Amino acid sequence: MGDWWQRNIMEPGKLPLLLALTAFVLTFVITRVITRLIRAGKGPFGNVKAGGVHIHHVVPGVVLTVVGGFGAVAGGRHGFGSALAAVVFGVGAGLVLDEFALILHLDDVYWTEAGRKSVEVVVLTAALVGLVLAGFTPFGVDGMSQDELQDRANVIATVAGNFFFSLLALAKGKARLAIFGVIVPVIALVGAVRLARPGSPWARRFYARRPRARARARLRAYHHDRRWSGPRRVVQDWIGGRPDPQ
To answer: What pTM, to 2 d.p., does this model score?
Structure first.
């Protein structure tokens, strides 16, 4: 375990990324717990106000993100300063993206249906950073054997191929499959070969003169959304809380 940690986390300089991701996830979880307690009228917490203005937590989040970002640039990749900057940045990013929907709509939509976008963005961000963190990085690792070099070269080639299929999935309007497909080959391949979603760049380019393909794409998207919208809502409600009834 110690050798793996040294070779895959410390030598490639991934410790700040790990600290930032941990701080990001913990900040989001703690923030959602506090906001749900405030919403339920429980606990000692309450909304922060100044001069009658509700100060959303995206405000300190932006400040922390800026401080942590500039601190990371100034502090380099190693040392206590870099680790501290990574934690500050992760906390700030967690606060900002928890209110991503508010920034997107320029309105307080935290507990509305539109507020679900914040949960989606946080989950996708954490997954993407986690995939980057879990990937094998050959740069900055010293003293590797020939077998280790070959293994890492194979991983890089595999990821490059998956990335190509992920780009196809993204062009077909399947962002989630595209993100996870960078690492998992089957997911990337499924997203690349299936019909594009209506309105995606691929559909606009290749289905414009194919009415049958457009009709199949709309029908498949309808059945897919109907099948998975329920479970997706359950997961989103469990993570971020149920939106207010409209």
So the answer is: 0.75
